Amino acid sequence: MIRPQDRLTQPGGLADRLRNLRTAAGMAGKDLAEMLGWAPSKVSRLENGRQMPSTEDIAVWAQATRAGDEDAEDLRLLLNDAQTVHRDWRRRMSRGQVAVQKDYNDLVANSTRIRYFETTWIPGFLQIPDYARRAFAEMVDLHDLAVGDVEAAVTTRLERQQALYDTTKQFELMITEPVLGWMPIPPAVMRAQLDRLQTAIDLPNVRFGIVPLRRPLSRIPQNSFQLYDNYGVVETFVGETECGPEDVEKYHRVMDQLWEEAVTGSEARRLIVAASDALPR
C-alpha cells in the first residue's frame, strides 16, 4: 500500500511542486511563512512531506507564489491523490474482522450525516444476523483469513444499527433494485431480510430509497460507496479506498443525482414486496 507521505515526497509530487513554486517566486521559506502568518517550520514540513497540507494551505501557497491557474489546479489534484488511501482487505483483516467493524462504528458515532449507496449488498445498518453472517463468511473464504471471529463481527456490526434511532444523525440509505434479488441466504431467511428493509421506510431520520430497473436514468450506478460527513470510503472485492476531498465532493454530487432517480416510501415498499413474492417457495 502506498502511504500518503510517499505520494507527498515522490519525485514531482506535491512537496516538490510547492518548493519549486516558492523558489521560482524568489522567496525564502521564512518570507513565505511571514506572508501567510505561519511558523517557518510549517513551510519546511510541507516542502519535505512531513505534514499533509490542507486545501486552504494549497490555495494560499499558490496565491502567495503567484502560481498560474494551471499550476494551482495541479496542486489541488496532487493533494487529492495524496489524501487517497488504499487498503487491501487481507492485510486489513489479518487480525480479525471485529476491529474493522469497530472502526466503522466509530465513524458513525463521530458523523452526523451518513450516506450509503449499495449495488451489491444490503447496507449493514439494515442487515439481519443471518445476512451479516453470510457476508463475513464470504470475506473469510475470499481472502483466506485465518480468523474465527465471524460471530463477534456480526455482533459488532449489529451494534451499529442502534445509531439509526439517534435523531441527531441523518441517514440516507440507497440500494439498486437488483440488490433485492441477490440471494446469498436461503429464500425463507431472505424474506425476513427484505421485511427488515421495510422498517427503515418509517424511521424519521432515515431516508431509504431504491434505484429501480426498467426506467430511464440520467446517472447510471457504477459502484457502491459510503459517505460520513466529509469522509468517503469505496469498497471493492480486494480492499477499500479512503477518498480524497475532491472525490468525496464528487460522490456527494452523485448521491444527490441518484436521489432524483430513486423511489421511496410506498413505491420502495412495493418493490420490496414484489422481490419477496418472487423468491422461491
From TrEMBL:
Annotated GO molecular function terms are: DNA binding
Q: What is this protein called?
A: Transcriptional regulator
Q: Give the originating organism.
A: Planosporangium mesophilum
The cross-references to Pfam families, in alphabetical order and at most eight, read: DUF5753 (PF19054), HTH_31 (PF13560)
Q: Which PROSITE patterns match?
A: HTH_CROC1
The HTH cro/C1-type domain extends over: 18-58
